[in-house]
From TrEMBL:
Listed name of the protein: Dynactin subunit 4
Major place of residence: cytoplasm
Sequence similarity: Belongs to the dynactin subunit 4 family.
Listed transmembrane segments: 177-196
Stored InterPro entries: DCTN4
Subunit and interaction comment: Subunit of dynactin, a multiprotein complex part of a tripartite complex with dynein and a adapter, such as BICDL1, BICD2 or HOOK3. The dynactin complex is built around ACTR1A/ACTB filament and consists of an actin-related filament composed of a shoulder domain, a pointed end and a barbed end. Its length is defined by its flexible shoulder domain. The soulder is composed of 2 DCTN1 subunits, 4 DCTN2 and 2 DCTN3. The 4 DCNT2 (via N-terminus) bind the ACTR1A filament and act as molecular rulers to determine the length. The pointed end is important for binding dynein-dynactin cargo adapters.
GO cellular component assignments: cell cortex; centrosome; dynactin complex; myofibril; stress fiber
Keywords: Acetylation, Coiled coil, Cytoplasm, Cytoskeleton, Isopeptide bond, Membrane, Phosphoprotein, Transmembrane, Transmembrane helix, Ubl conjugation
Taxonomy, superkingdom: Eukaryota
A Pfam family of this chain: Dynactin_p62
Keyword Cytoplasm tagged: yes
Subcellular location: Cytoplasm, Cell cortex; Cytoplasm, Cytoskeleton, Microtubule organizing center, Centrosome; Cytoplasm, Cytoskeleton, Stress fiber; Cytoplasm, Myofibril
Length: 580
């Protein structure tokens, strides 16, 4: 079955002809189209520390070099360091003269702090860093190349300003050749009209002819020509700026000789040498021994908002508070577009050639999902499919909206695939070969539209609740509808292979009716609809009242139809059923 742990089985095609899972797509309710991570513009809203959740502005984050001043990462393993306190004996203050004469100074217990890693057990004491009297204020070793880096940044900044000035100077350069070109064209034009030879008489006639024109059209006056020749350069400096020289690096002379005997005869301590990852985590110092490791400040995280590049409307905007996980604006496709999955019968799943994974004791780690990262889909071997014989496959469609939605499914023909998937094949030609056809199977999809029940909060937590006991979907054809469970519906689909063997793929267009409501009306109506749908679902499950006869839901549905803009939206899905 295509689930969220196997995202590559069913992918949607965005507006830039890039296939992505539905969980990584966004739906623009102004363009009525889906967008991927490449179709949106990313804007940084705020910077915060992921450990202490300290929020700061962009200017403050830039001044701190995008690092938190209170939290540290372990230089050995990269995990967050924790502060631990301990008691240490220190000489008492104010007993200097008495203690110095007797030789015995009184000691008092003082609390000191050090950094400790709970994962690899590394402490600051291993690097010889003394304990601090306060939890903060850890000294950081300065970069030995800080002055050189600052000098280069300043020089290249001056060089960039000079290059910008040069581009502006060449852009507004005087164009005197235009006047001579206009005069030549005018002389030729007059010679052709009056059929005169190209002699001095033509020039004299032109001058006599231009005098009345100059009074009527001031564009030909010398005043305009002088003004035109100075266009763009008025008030601008046209002289080249001073030459900028980048100071060259100076190699340091090696004064001490290299001791070969110490390198050859001294045994190498592997446990004292740092790894390449540990050196790369501290690029300024690059310690070669573990005793030189120092805690590094934790990098800041950002909260960003996504904006549609076509209509420039916001698609996703998180809350400003770092501790909040809610979104102010969330137009993810999984919240607005019906989700499509498929389920294969157990008899169609082939046994793996190697049964070592079945006897595995240690479970495999789950993949880490990033913004543009999709875990690689494992190879799915199927059996029981043959050419000319239809096999049953169940397509599962779930409704994310809190209203009844109508969905129609249709498979693309070979001619439509060659047109709509031309750019997709150009980008992924090495994966699908040189052909311009994606589908290798034929799906027997229902012609009529399928109504999906509204999503309710009760159905999310009750897997046993179904909509079969209601009269709302009593006209379902059992040959088409396999089952209904809450806002999900299973559709019986016949799968017929078009080629012998290979990957079983199909391109399906899903058309659903989307109701776009205004922001103010949508929040009030949608919240009321959620409460009414939840109460109706609970009453239907208990057998007190049927959802189809609830006047509250019908009244709210009519109100939403009046408030919103309803239209049909098409979305192309690429299905991969496995390898036969």
């Amino acid at each position: 079955m295509a689930t969220y742990f196997d995202l590559c089985r069913v992918q949607g095609l965005c507006s830039c002809n890039r296939s992505c899972p539905l969980s990584q797509l966004y739906f623009c309710r102004h363009c009525y189209d889906v967008r991927c991570g490449n179709c949106v513009s990313h804007e940084v809203d705020s910077h915060y520390c992921p450990n202490c959740l300290e929020n700061m502005t962009s200017a403050e984050a830039k001044m701190r070099k995008h690092r938190c001043g209170n939290c540290f990462d372990c230089p050995s393993c990269g995990h967050t360091l924790s502060t631990r306190g301990t008691l240490a004996l220190a000489p008492a203050t104010g007993a200097g003269s008495a203690g110095s004469t007797s030789g015995d100074s009184p000691l008092t217990a003082q609390k000191t702090y050090y950094l400790f890693c709970g994962f690899c057990r590394w402490t600051t004491r291993e690097s010889g860093i003394p304990d601090q009297k306060s939890p903060g204020g850890w000294n950081e070793t300065s970069n030995p190349h800080a002055d050189r880096i600052e000098t280069l940044i300043t020089e290249y900044r001056h060089l960039a300003a000079k290059e910008k000035t040069e581009r502006e100077r060449t852009k507004y350069k005087k164009r005197t050749y235009i006047l001579s070109l206009v005069r030549s064209v005018l002389l030729l034009f007059l010679a052709l009209i009056f059929n005169l030879p190209r002699t001095f008489h033509v020039q004299r006639f032109t001058l006599l002819f231009l005098f009345p024109l100059q009074e009527k059209f001031p564009v030909l006056t010398p005043r305009f020509r002088r003004r035109y020749s100075n266009w763009g350069s008025y008030g601008r400096e046209t002289n080249s700026g001073p030459e900028i020289k980048i100071s060259a690096a100076e190699a340091q002379s090696i004064t001490e000789s290299f001791n070969v005997d110490e390198l050859v005869n001294k045994p190498f301590a592997f446990e004292m040498a740092t790894s390449a990852l540990q050196r790369h985590m501290a690029p300024a110092l690059q310690p070669t021994e573990t005793r030189n490791l120092e805690p590094r400040h934790k990098a800041l995280a950002v909260k960003r908002s996504l904006r549609c590049k076509k209509c420039e409307h916001t698609l996703s905007k998180a809350d400003f508070n770092p501790s909040y996980t809610k979104f102010r604006i969330n137009l993810s496709a999984v919240c607005h577009v019906p989700d499509l999955h498929f389920a294969l019968p157990p008899s169609a799943l082939a046994d793996p050639a190697d049964s070592t994974d079945r006897n595995r004791v240690t479970p495999l780690p789950l993949p880490t999902l990033g913004f543009n990262s999709v875990p690689a889909s494992s190879e799915l071997r199927v059996k029981g499919f043959s050419m000319g014989k239809a096999s049953n496959v169940v397509l599962i469609v779930s409704n994310p909206a809190h209203r009844v939605t109508t969905v129609r499914l249709r498979q693309l023909t070979a001619e439509e695939e060659s047109v709509k998937l031309a750019e997709f094949f150009a980008k992924n030609g090495n994966v699908f070969g040189s052909g311009n056809t994606y589908s290798t199977v034929k799906l027997d999809l229902p012609v009529c539209g399928i109504r999906l029940a509204a999503k309710s909060d009760a159905s999310e937590y009750n897997d046993l609740m179904t909509t079969e006991s209601t009269n709302e979907f009593k006209d379902d054809d059992p040959k088409v509808i396999a089952y209904r469970q809450g806002h999900k519906v299973g559709i019986n689909t016949g799968l017929t292979m078009l080629t012998s063997g290979g990957v079983l793929r199909a391109a399906v267009v899903m058309t659903f009716d989307y109701l776009n409501t205004t922001t103010a009306a949508a929040s009030s109506v949608l919240s009321a609809e959620q409460r009414a749908a939840t109460m109706s679902a609970v009453l239907a499950a208990s057998g007190i009242k049927e959802v189809g006869d609830d006047p509250i839901v019908s009244a709210i549905g009519k109100g939403m139809e009046e408030e919103g803009d309803k239209r049909d939206v098409d979305l192309l899905f690429l299905l991969d059923f496995g390898t036969c």
